[in-house]
Amino acid sequence: MKSLKTLAFGLFVVLFLSFSQAEAEAHGPDLHSGSKGQAVTELQTKLKKLGYFHVTPTGYYGSITETAVSQFQRDFGVPATGYTGTLTRNKLEQVDMMAHVVHGEARGEVYKGKVAVAAVILNRINSGHFPNSTYDVIFQRNAFTAVNDGQYWLTPDASAYQAVRDAYQGWDPSAGATYYYNPAGVTDNWIFSRTVITKIGKHYFAK
């Protein structure tokens, strides 16, 4: 009986460790000075689009990458450790999701209009009338046309990422809007009941 208990405990430990490792890998590795590989290249590419990394991505995490990560962390309210722990990875994921929306919804618009779209997402998160997480706001049913029609999955350009960065740092050209729409593409007249605050490019921003 004792040997069976020991065997069962051993199997539990193996399964637990396997699950923990799989869960950690699913959220990405911690990257720090000395790290190498594709994950570092992807991080550097994203930081370059955000305007923090100013050289060609190398796949090596050195002092330039550490400085870029620290600057990102300070601007986005994450402890400036210089390495990508869980908080930094989560924030990068939120920025990435927002950049996909901005690119899908506002590419071709003036830069100010892109920042305004990013600001609307943040305004919804903070409003109390919408879900309170980036993921839940973006993927709320019928919230964004780009999610519904697949344009969300296009690769965002640098201007989309930098628009998210500017919105995070407090620039809100929408003046507090929680809705926006292009009148030419409206399929539900309900949106016309919202109070328009401003117009930027083809988009009307409203509450």
Describe this structure in words.
The chain has 207 residues and is mainly alpha-helical. The chain has eight helices and three strands. The protein has helices at residues 2-26, 38-50, 63-75, 86-106, 111-127, 134-138, 145-149, 158-168, and strands spanning 179-181, 196-200, 203-206. Strands 1-3-2 form a three-stranded antiparallel beta sheet, covered by helices on one side. Strand 2 and strand 3 (203-206) form a beta hairpin. Helix 2 (38-50) packs across helix 8 (158-168). Residues 1-26 have low confidence and may be disordered.
Helix content: 40-55%
Q: How many helical stretches?
A: 8
- Whole-Å distance between the termini? 68 Å
Shape: elongated
Query: Main sheet?
Result: 3 strands, antiparallel
Mean model confidence by pLDDT: 89
Summary of the model, kept short:
This protein has helices at 2-26, 38-50, 63-75, 86-106, 111-127, 134-138, 145-149, 158-168; strands spanning 179-181, 196-200, 203-206. By secondary structure, it is mainly alpha-helical. Strands 1-3-2 form a three-stranded antiparallel beta sheet, covered by helices on one side.
Break the fold down into its secondary structure elements and pairings.
Elements lengths: L1 H25 L11 H13 L12 H13 L10 H21 L4 H17 L6 H5 L6 H5 L8 H11 L10 E3 L14 E5 L2 E4 L1
Features:
207 residues, mainly alpha, 3-stranded antiparallel beta sheet, 8 helices, 3 strands, 53% helix, elongated, disordered N terminus
